[in-house]
């Protein structure tokens, strides 16, 4: 194998100029313009080392062996060149990605969907893994996906059934090959390789290169180029790291609470996109914090002024993207907050390296949505540290901090200002209206603080079940339910309503573009809406499923960004395309297959109860065979 080597910086203090000099931009890698536009919208400004080395090789048709740790950006390294060569007019399976676990398969599948935004909705990717309903997978395969992402066991099942046609396969990716070897899948991987065309391109990624993996590479890859990315980045011992699980509270509200209670000097808040820097900075300024945006679109002169303001203490908070903050060395930065979790673990290391400078202690807080827990574990493996959860300040803590700060402002004003005129006005008012000084002082305090009340609104647990939720970027839909209800749809345990019954108070009825003909069940809608929008299960109301669409009751006046997320959320491989329901149900929707809403325990479209789920490791659908053969997924 020919080899390309790239060493990462040995510490977070590495000079930024060298870092940028080693890496080209995405434009120079040869990707098409539509893909470059998508990458830019996602906030990617420069490729990671594995992307910079691998993408041109794959676009050139080379087989590649990539040695890189999880979290170095390798998914984009193979997904982007695959998408650049996809023929969306063909119904053939053109690329196959093998992953060791269903979690990774889903993560890679979502990445393909995200990166394909510039293909105009014509691209289809399908994850295949054990534990999923085989009939649903067979239906999805008939729709002609362009890319399959799956685990070895389930892929072999489909090959044995002849439901998976790889005769026109162009690219095969083995992701985390050493992990598949460790889990005992290497024989299945070889069997799959043998069933693919001889002229396909093969990409193998592995964190290590044991002899068995090297043998597979030598046997099945044609003159592969080896790309080796050494990961040596470590976090400073003087940086205390915490994560907060995004649950039940809007990220902005949680951030506000942290900012009010934490004693910080200077702070950087990292987000993924340029647009998010300005939006979040504006919202923080509106809440009384001194914040500014820093991104790649800001002119160099303005950037320098902003950094100088931070150094001099005239600015407290920077909201920045990864690239914009590179090379930033400001000693007074005591806190780093990862408002958006980075896709690249190396980026996390560089982010938190902005604090804890010159021997000072630093603190790093990472916001993690429930669906991003795997990314948290990956960061922990990279940093070789377990990151503990952060206890968010309570409402009482917040009130105490606000009162203490308000008292301090009053005392400082008394000491520093000539108040004789205002004291005279207060005395006259007290005499004229027979008021006490305390009553007047209370009224003045209210006028001063009415836009920033000392006591925040009661938290959700003090509200009625149908009050407006706090909006988050992710939530565990089952957390508010009891264990007995965790697998039931929103209609379970309640008598079904007629389709003409309106939503409950505070709720709005929406229409989504999946129905009986797609085989959708209420539980799938609940899971998709909860995971993508962050609306907890308790706020998802009645669901009714018709032939070609369904209706879902959701909280009224949802923020625009939540509605936009749900527009693109996919269920049964179809986008929801959510709209406000106008109340009209065509006759053929009712007579041609209308059914009352069912809970998840009441089966799929056929109405039959699902088969009993066996113990892990012994169910065919979980990717394992009975008998002495080793388990698959």
UniProtKB/TrEMBL annotation:
Similarity comment: Belongs to the DEAD box helicase family. DeaD/CsdA subfamily.
PROSITE patterns cross-referenced by the UniProt entry: DEAD_ATP_HELICASE, HELICASE_ATP_BIND_1, HELICASE_CTER, Q_MOTIF
The organism of origin for this protein: Allohahella marinimesophila
KW RNA-binding (keyword) present: yes
UniProt signal peptide: none
Official protein name in the record: ATP-dependent RNA helicase DeaD
Enzyme class, spelled out: hydrolase
GO molecular function (one): helicase activity
Boundaries of every Helicase ATP-binding domain copy: 55-227
DEAD-box RNA helicase Q domain mapped to chain residues: 24-52
């Amino acid at each position: 194998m020919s080899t390309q080597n790239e060493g990462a910086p040995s510490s977070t203090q590495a000079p930024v100029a060298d870092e940028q000099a080693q890496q080209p931009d995405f434009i120079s890698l040869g990707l098409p313009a539509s893909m470059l536009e998508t990458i830019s919208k996602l906030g990617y400004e420069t490729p990671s080392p594995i992307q910079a080395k691998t993408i041109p090789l794959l676009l050139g048709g080379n087989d590649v062996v990539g040695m890189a740790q999880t979290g170095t950006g390798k998914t984009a390294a193979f997904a982007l060149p695959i998408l650049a060569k996809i023929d969306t007019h063909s119904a053939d399976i053109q690329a196959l990605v093998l992953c060791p676990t269903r979690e990774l398969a889903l993560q890679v599948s979502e990445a393909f969907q995200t990166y394909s935004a510039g293909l105009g909705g014509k691209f289809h990717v399908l994850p295949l893994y054990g534990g999923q309903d085989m009939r649903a997978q067979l239906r999805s395969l008939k729709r002609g996906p362009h890319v399959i992402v799956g685990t070895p066991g389930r892929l072999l099942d489909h090959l044995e059934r002849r439901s998976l046609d790889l005769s026109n396969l162009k690219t095969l990716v083995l992701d985390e090959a050493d992990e598949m070897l460790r889990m005992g899948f290497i024989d299945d991987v070889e069997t799959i390789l043998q069933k693919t065309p001889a002229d396909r391109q093969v990409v193998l990624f592995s964190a290590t290169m044991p002899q068995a993996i090297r043998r597979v590479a030598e046997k099945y890859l044609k003159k592969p180029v080896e790309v080796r990315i050494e990961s040596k980045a470590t976090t400073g011992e003087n940086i205390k790291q915490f994560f907060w699980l995004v649950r039940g509270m809007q990220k902005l509200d949680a951030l506000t609470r942290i900012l009010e209670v934490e004693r910080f000097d200077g702070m950087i808040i990292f987000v993924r996109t340029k647009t998010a820097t300005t939006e979040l900075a504006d919202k923080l300024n509106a809440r009384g914090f001194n914040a500014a945006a820093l991104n790649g679109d800001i002119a160099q002169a303005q950037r320098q002024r902003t950094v100088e303001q931070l150094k001099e203490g005239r600015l407290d908070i920077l909201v920045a993207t990864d690239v914009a903050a590179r090379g930033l060395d400001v000693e007074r930065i005591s806190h780093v907050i990862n408002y958006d979790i980075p896709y690249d673990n190396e980026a996390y290391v560089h982010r938190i390296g902005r604090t804890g400078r010159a021997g000072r202690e630093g603190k790093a807080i990472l916001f993690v949505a429930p669906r991003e827990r795997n990314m948290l574990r990956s960061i922990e493996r990279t940093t070789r540290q377990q990151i503990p959860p952060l206890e968010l300040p309570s409402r009482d803590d917040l009130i105490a901090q606000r009162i203490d700060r308000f008292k301090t402002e009053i005392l400082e004003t008394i000491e520093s200002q000539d108040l004789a005129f205002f004291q005279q006005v207060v005395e006259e008012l007290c005499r004229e209206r027979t008021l006490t000084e305390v009553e007047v002082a209370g009224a003045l305090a209210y006028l001063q603080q009415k836009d920033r009340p000392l006591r925040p609104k009661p938290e959700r647990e003090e509200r009625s079940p149908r009050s407006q939720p706090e909006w988050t970027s992710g939530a565990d839909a089952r957390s508010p339910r009891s264990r007995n209800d965790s697998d039931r749809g929103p209609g379970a345990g309640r008598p079904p309503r007629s389709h003409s019954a309106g939503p409950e108070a505070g709720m709005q009825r929406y229409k989504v573009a999946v129905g009986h003909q797609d085989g959708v069940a209420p539980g799938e809608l609940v899971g998709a809406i909860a995971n993508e929008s962050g609306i907890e299960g308790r706020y998802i109301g009645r669901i009714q499923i018709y032939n070609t669409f369904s209706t879902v009751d959701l909280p009224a006046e949802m923020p625009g960004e939540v509605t936009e997320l749900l527009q693109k959320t996919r269920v049964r491989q179809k986008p929801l395309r959510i709209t406000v329901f106008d109340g009209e149900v065509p006759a053929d929707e009712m007579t041609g297959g209308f059914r009352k809403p069912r809970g998840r325990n009441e089966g799929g479209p056929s109405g039959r109860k699902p088969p009993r789920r066996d113990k892990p490791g012994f169910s065919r659908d979980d990717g394992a065979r009975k008998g002495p053969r080793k388990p698959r997924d």
